[in-house]
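Throughout our pipeline, every protein is held as a single compact record rather than as scattered files. The remainder of this section carries one protein's record, kept here as part of the documentation.

===
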Amino acid sequence: MKLDLKLTGCRALTMDPARPAAHTIGIWQGRIAGLDSDVADLPAAETVDLAGAVVLPGFIDAHTHLAWNGRHTIDITGLTTVAQILDRLGGSAGTGWIEASGYDRRIMDSPLTAADLDKISDGRPVYVADLSGHACVVNSAVLKQLPEITSDGWLTENEQLAARTLRLPYSLDEITAELRRSADQVLSEGVTMCAEAGIGAGLIASSPLEAAAYQRAQLPVRVQLMVSAYMLDDVQADPSDGIPRAIDLGLHTGFGDDMLSLGALKLWTDGGMMARTAALTEPYAGSDNAGQLAESEEFMRAAILDGHHAGWQLAIHAIGDRAIDFTLDAVAEAQRRRPQADARHRIEHCGLVRPDQLERIAALGLIPVVQPTFLWSYGDDYSEIMGAQRAPWMYRGRSFLDHGITVAGSSDRPVADGSPLRAIEFMVRRRSAAGQAVGPDEAITVEEAIRAYTLGSAYACRKEHVLGSLTPGKLADLVVLGEDPRTSDAIADIPVLATMVGGAFRFQRSS
C-alpha cells in the first residue's frame, strides 16, 4: 500500500482513548490509514515533517452562521454615540436598503431611534442589526411598511423578523460569496466542519433557496445545515407513517454526504440575554422584565412533536431557564408519544440552567450546544443582569460533565469571537475579557474542553463515526498548532499553522 500523505514529527493528541497520542499519521483517500508503527514503513506520495508541531482533530463548530458572518454590511461595532453611527452611515452609496451590523444598545450614550436614522436615510429603508441577532433598529421608511407595530425604531424578536422579511431575500450569488468569505475565516482558526444554525426561514435565514447556495459554493469546509422549523408543511402521508408535517419530499436529518448534509430541525423558544429577551422564571436583576417566549407554547410544542415524529433531530434554541423548562417538557412529551432511543435532540445555547434542570437534561439525553465566548465577551454584563445567585448557572461546563451530559462546543459566529481556541481557554479559565471570574466552579480541564470541540460536537452532529478523533478509518480532518494547549498559558493566542480537510491542506499559515 502506498499512502497519499504521511505526516511525521508531530505531537498528536488524538482524542481516541484507545490510542491517545501519536507522532506519525498516514493518510490515504482522504482518511486516516494508520498511526505510528501502522504506517511507519509504508511509502507515501508525499511526506511532510511537522517539526514537533501539535496536531488535534479538526475543530467542529456545532452552531454558527456562515452567511450572516460573511455578509458585507456597514460595521458599527464599538460605536457608542448616535452621532458616531450617523456619521458612519451617512453618504452610503446606492439606492436600496442601508444595512449595518454590530449595534450594541447597552453601550450607547442614548438609544438609536428611527428619527435619528431618518436624518441620513434620504428616504431609503435602514436596518441596523443588533449584535445579539435578536433585535434591530429601523427607520420610518421601514416602520411605515409595518403599520401593526408601534415603535421608536427598536424591534426585537418577531417584530424584528417582520422588518427583516421586508429586506429578504438575498440572491444566491450574494449568499455564495458570503459563505466563501466565512469558510476562509473558519479554516484559519482550525475549524473543519460547521453546523449552519437555521436556513430557509426565521431570524437568520437569507433566502427560501438558501440550500442551493451551499451546493453552489462547494466550500472547502464541511457543512451541516439546520433547517428552520418554519419550513414544516402539512403533508398527505399515509396515516401509518404518523407524520402530519414535514419538509418537501420528507427529507430529514442525515440526508447528504460528508461535505454537505442536513442536520437538525432548528426552532426558537426564546430570545437572548444581550437583548434581554431570553425567557426567565424570575426577572432580570433590577427590573420587572423576565424576557419572552419566541412563539405561543402551542406553536412551539407542535413543531417539536411533529419534527420528532418526522425523524428529525431537533436543535432547540433555549437560553433562559423558563425556555429550558418548556423544552424539557415538550421533548419528554415527544419521547412518550414516540420513543426514539438515539434521538440526540439538542438545546442550542442552554444558557441559564438551574441545578434542578441538570438531571432532566441528562435523563432525556439532550445535548447542550454551548458558546463559551459569550461569557468571555459579555460575561460581565450577563453576570450583572442575572445577579449573584444565577450567574454561576450560565453556560455550564463542569456540572454538565458531572451529570454524564455530552457537551458540544460552538461559537454562534458572528455574535461572538468564533475561535475555538478562545472558547477552550474560557472553558478552562472561566474569566471574561476584563478578567472577571464567571462561574469559576464550572471550569473544566483542557482536554475536556478540546473534547467539546471535537468528539462532543461530532456527536451532536451525528458524525462521531467519521469525525472528532484521529482514529484510523475516520476522515483526515485535523488542525496543526504551534503550541500544546495543555501546557500553554495563553491558549487563545496559539497560532493555527495549518488546517486539513479530507487529507488536503485547506489553510496554511504563510510564515
Observations:
- The first strand starts at residue 5 and ends at 8.
- Residues 229-257+264-460 form a domain with the TIM Barrel fold (CATH 3.20.20.140).
